[in-house]
């Protein structure tokens, strides 16, 4: 007989902040209240870089699926979802559709809404979701407006990273070192980097770029900038290796068009990298305030170059913002504290769990060939 409740976490078997977020929360949990199991969804039909830092074992498994009908995916996936009491952490349509069909009466369903692209799921599966959490204030406010009757079930909890005990050697005279730390895909704005570099060259601003990580556009992008001698490519293998590189960087640049609260942003700020980012979400302005860094409009390459030029020519401003970055992480984004907030909510799952209603649309669809079902459905519609 199991003595602990189960925490079942759905994550993604792809590179990116979503998987990092869950790993950070779990590895910094305050206690062993739950038995924890992670299912990493692996969409085989997606041309995307797979995770290379997931340790697979009996409690960390990969679930492969492709462009098969969702009912077929669900019928396989539900076999991995136990009937044990506890919590299931959802993020995507795949597992929510499965739970919509195969109810787990003893589990509370938590939905983590990472960014704007997933808000529609909160409404689509409102009838099975018990708790909604988001770490972006703009996303939180939009979901509250979308589901005004569920406000007490919607929570804004920022996530976090490890606080670094690090005394930075501030760059007061050498050329700026800029980092791009995101998946190498168009959505993250990687092809805007050479445009920004061109504009800086016109202004005689000498910078060194460090392109970290990997992604499906990596080789194409390498070819794009191969004639530039100021672009460097690194793939840190561990978080420690990554932090070691970031300690040498001055400015974090992210021309992304869609994000929530990037883990890479917080990791960079933890060691004093000053952020210059696109306004991928109004909520990011709560994190990157004027004393921290700069948020410019999406696609505005000139504005990006303006802010980098400002930091290059005003090194005291660079230093002051760098110090503010580290302080902000220490005060608001300590992963141990933030993980504690998440798990405190998870532990209250019994009180937060709602009564389930019969999914009438699913039953009708499944048994529509039965004459009595059709007659009953027609009667209810009338």
Walk across the major sheet and give the strand order.
3-2-1-4-5-6-7
Into which percentage range does the β-strand content fall?
15-25%
Measured on Cα atoms, how large is the radius of gyration? 23 Å
Q: Structural class given helices, strands, pairing? A: alpha/beta
General shape = elongated
The count of strands amounts to 13
Major beta sheet summary: 7 strands, parallel
What are the salient characteristics of this protein?
alpha/beta, seven-stranded parallel beta sheet, 13 strands, 382 residues, six-stranded parallel beta sheet
Q: Mind sketching the topology for me?
A:
Layout lengths: L5 E7 L4 H11 L7 E9 L16 E6 L4 H8 L8 E5 L2 H9 L5 E7 L5 H6 L6 E4 L2 H10 L7 E3 L19 E6 L11 H10 L4 E6 L5 H7 L6 E4 L4 H8 L4 E4 L8 H8 L3 E5 L15 E3 L4 H13 L1 H18 L2 H13 L1 H4 L7 H7 L4 H11 L1
Parallel strand pairs: 1-2, 1-4, 2-3, 4-5, 5-6, 6-7, 8-9, 8-11, 9-10, 11-12, 12-13
